[in-house]
Specification:
With 120 residues, this protein is mainly alpha-helical. It has a domain at 35-112. Helix content is 58%, strand content 7%. The chain has three helices and four strands. A two-stranded antiparallel sheet has the order 1-2. Helix 2 (36-66) runs antiparallel to helix 3 (75-108). The termini are far apart.
């Protein structure tokens, strides 16, 4: 069994390559994280959400490009490809940002501004 990235308990749940226990995965009711564990959980959740979005955008892009005939695309086909590619690019950038924020927290203890306690 793997170790939960948030609370370090053993878990069989994986989201992509991330191991996370069900309790931490379901812990979405954190309004403003206060503890190190809650901050880590919030950052991991953002990675999970960004991963799901990037995967969905990639699937849409693949679906759009696979529907094109071998000749010239339909007039709106070019715009559909551009839109799908743009959405996939944005989703991937969000995923990179989410990973960078978790990495900064895990390695340097840097808490993102949006997760810092008000007045502290």
């Amino acid at each position: 069994m793997a170790e939960c990235i948030v609370c370090k308990t053993e878990t069989f749940v994986h989201v992509g390559i991330i191991s996370i226990c069900i309790k931490c995965l379901e812990n979405q009711a954190i309004a403003q994280p206060r503890t190190e564990q809650e901050i880590r959980a919030a950052l991991v959740k953002r990675i999970i959400n960004a991963t799901v979005r990037a995967s969905a955008a990639s699937e849409v892009f693949s679906a759009v490009t696979s529907q094109l005939p071998s000749g010239l695309p339909h007039p709106d086909g070019v715009q559909r490809i551009k839109s799908a590619a743009n959405e996939m690019s944005i989703a991937r950038k969000e995923l990179i940002t989410a990973h960078r924020r978790l990495n900064d927290f895990m390695e340097g203890g840097i808490v993102p501004e949006d997760l810092k306690q008000a007045g502290g």
